Amino acid sequence: MFKKLTIRDLTMISLFTALICVSSYIRIDLPYGPPLTAQTLAVMLAGSILPPRHAAFSLLTYLLLGAVGAPIFAGGTAGLPIILGKTGGYLIGFLVGAVVISLIRGKKSSLIKLGIANVIGGIIVINLFGSIWFSYITGMGMAKTFILAVLPYIPGDLLKAAAATIIANRLNKYLSYNNSHKV
Q: CA 17 to CA 23: how far, in whole Å?
């Protein structure tokens, strides 16, 4: 069935959980639009480097820590109300998106494969989950939700996908972590 987690596995899972937690505090305010946070970059990196099961554990740990009150969601927020609130779909999308990235990337990834995986899992999947939930909670139609809660963030998401692709491609050559693990 599943291989037992090693100390190295637990270390990598914990490292990416911590990276995602810290990234929620990294915010760049732009003069022309919404602020950029580093959360999706960290989620894309987790999916680009960790095997699918480990990416899932890392993001599940992040969500559970935030749900029980650790101030690790965007802007230092925490608690179940955030997950159940209007942006909670994005948080759930982080979990699904990281796993999708890892599955698309596969064991032997190339720069192009990583780029495609980050766009699909890190932008499309996360925004799909987030916008559907946002629309449901706010009662706003999908078109208005897309214009308000997705469209302004796409340029930043594309930059983060490119950065995650380049960083992960380089790290994967040195870590050899992906190639030694089975799903």
A: 10
75 dihedral zone (left: phi>0; alpha: psi -120 to 50; beta): left
Residue-range domain boundaries for the chain: 7-26+35-175
Q: State how far the alpha carbon of 120 is from the alpha carbons of 16, 101, 126, 157, in Å.
A: 20, 7, 9, 11
Give, in words, the CATH class of 7-26+35-175: mainly alpha
Cβ–Cβ < 8 Å for 94, 129: no
Question: Tokens 């159940």 belong to which residue?
Answer: 84
d(CA 105, CA 56): 15
pLDDT digits (tens, 9 = 90+) for 40-88: 999 999 999 999 999 999 999 999 999 999 999 998 999 999 999 999 9
Overall size of the chain counted in residues = 183
What pTM, to 2 d.p., does this model score?
Answer: 0.93
- Residue pair 49/177 in contact by the 8 Å Cβ criterion: yes
